[in-house]
UniProtKB/TrEMBL annotation:
Swiss-Prot/TrEMBL keywords: Metal-binding, Oxidoreductase, Zinc
Protein name, per record: NAD(P)-dependent alcohol dehydrogenase
Family: Belongs to the zinc-containing alcohol dehydrogenase family.
MF GO annotations: oxidoreductase activity, acting on the CH-OH group of donors, NAD or NADP as acceptor; zinc ion binding
Domain of life: Bacteria
Pfam families per UniProt: ADH_N, ADH_zinc_N
Residues in Enoyl reductase (ER) domain copies: 6-367
InterPro entries for this protein: ADH-like_C (IPR013149), ADH-like_N (IPR013154), ADH_Zn_CS (IPR002328), ER (IPR020843), GroES-like_sf (IPR011032), NAD(P)-bd_dom_sf (IPR036291)
UniProt cross-references to CDD domains, sorted A to Z: benzyl_alcohol_DH
Known cofactor(s): Zn(2+)
Gene3D superfamilies per record: Medium-chain alcohol dehydrogenases, catalytic domain, NAD(P)-binding Rossmann-like Domain
Length: 369
């Protein structure tokens, strides 16, 4: 079928809306008419050519919409169902069997390379094949082809156009606090970075009843938003030459938990100095490629002496069929206002959305086909 998609023709090239051909759903696949798709930092990393995906490509991995068709064997959803789309997983490896699909043995193959698990591509135009199936969806388009495992039903009352944001960035931030690190009641926490992931972590920390919630973020509007969402303190790093000292001025013994969403080497290297004994450092931020060791030998010595736990986190350790419905239920109860992070743009203005996110003029752009 003919669809309209935001195509990236070369690394760092702008997104261009084009007509492309999308395959019909095969066995186990679901065709979704996209109503909204979140813009995530991972989309931009991929569009810069930093993931193993061949251009031209269609990105987008926080889609939501209405099921139009299903392939053979699909029983989870039917045409007409409202769904959010999340990351792809195989469903049968040891990690999937343990309900930890974010660590699926086929994670890279199913999400990063722009093709189905069997190696085929689902998109093309008159010039040849286009890499699709990004995170099992490629939802910067009017329609996306996904799989039964990728979709989660969206109940009435949850705005469908923004529900897809729960499929990656927001579940990553909230899940880091609620699942990966399981922050305990009255815990002290510092969140490094106040973007969509960091602010979702703040909301997760409120739900976990953390006692001290510190956000480190240079953008004043995001600091204010963090405080309104439940952070107890906000630090402007541009005004604090010593980050550890600024955090310890609030939590003299250090913090029980730290979550880095920034990927900034200088920030990451400071973390051991602000942790309390037996503290946990969770990280979702990806440092730049040139940042090789991040002072790791010294950091390991500090980790041993402090009894620290260092925890890499993917997708907030989410089991999407469990955690995304939980977040939607909390939203409907007024306890997880993720909609406050969102600003919507027409899909045709995707490049403006990218620019405004980089400028800090919005937190979580959502593109409306």
């Amino acid at each position: 079928m003919k669809i309209t998609a935001a195509v990236t023709r070369a690394p760092c090239a702008p997104f261009v809306l084009e007509e492309v051909e999308l395959d019909p759903p095969g066995a186990g696949e679901v065709l979704v008419r996209i109503v909204g798709a979140g813009l995530c930092h991972t989309d931009l990393v991929a569009a810069e050519g930093l993931l193993p995906i061949t251009m031209p490509a269609v990105f987008g991995h926080e889609g939501a919409g209405v099921v139009e068709r299903v392939g053979a064997g699909v029983t989870k959803v039917k045409p007409g169902d409202n769904v959010a789309i999340t990351f792809a997983s195989c469903g049968h490896c040891p990690q999937c069997d343990r309900h930890a699909p974010a660590y699926c043995h086929a994670m890279a193959a199913l999400n990063f390379v722009g093709q189905r698990g069997d190696g085929s591509r689902s998109m093309r135009d008159g010039k040849g094949e286009i890499s699709g199936n990004f995170f099992g969806q490629s939802s910067f388009a009017t329609h996306a082809l996904t799989t039964e495992r990728n979709v989660v039903k969206v109940p009435d009352g949850v705005p469908l156009e923004i529900a897809g944001t729960l499929g990656c960035g927001i579940q990553t931030g909230a899940g880091a606090i609620m699942r990966s690190m399981a922050c305990h009641e009255n815990a002290s926490l510092v969140v490094l970075g106040g973007g969509a992931v960091g602010l979702s972590a703040v909301m997760g920390a409120v739900l976990q009843k953390c006692g001290t919630i510190i956000v480190v973020e240079p953008n004043a509007n995001r600091r204010d938003l963090a405080l309104s969402l439940g952070a107890t303190h906000a630090i402007d790093p541009s005004q604090s030459a010593d980050l550890a000292a600024a955090v310890r001025a609030i939590a003299p013994h250090g913090v029980d938990f730290a979550l880095d969403t920034s990927g900034i080497p200088a920030v990451i290297e400071a973390v051991p100095k602000l942790l309390a004994p037996r503290g946990t450092f969770g990280f979702v931020g990806v440092p730049p490629a040139h940042a090789t060791n991040l002072g790791l030998p010294g950091t390991l010595r500090e980790a041993m002496r402090g009894g620290f736990t260092y925890r890499g986190i993917i997708e907030g350790d989410s089991d999407p069929d469990v955690f995304i419905p939980q977040l939607m239920s909390l939203y409907l109860a007024g306890r997880f206002p993720f909609d406050r992070l969102v600003k919507t743009y027409p899909l045709a203005e995707i490049n403006r959305a990218v620019a405004e996110q980089k400028q800090g003029l919005c937190v979580k752009p959502v593109l409306l086909p």
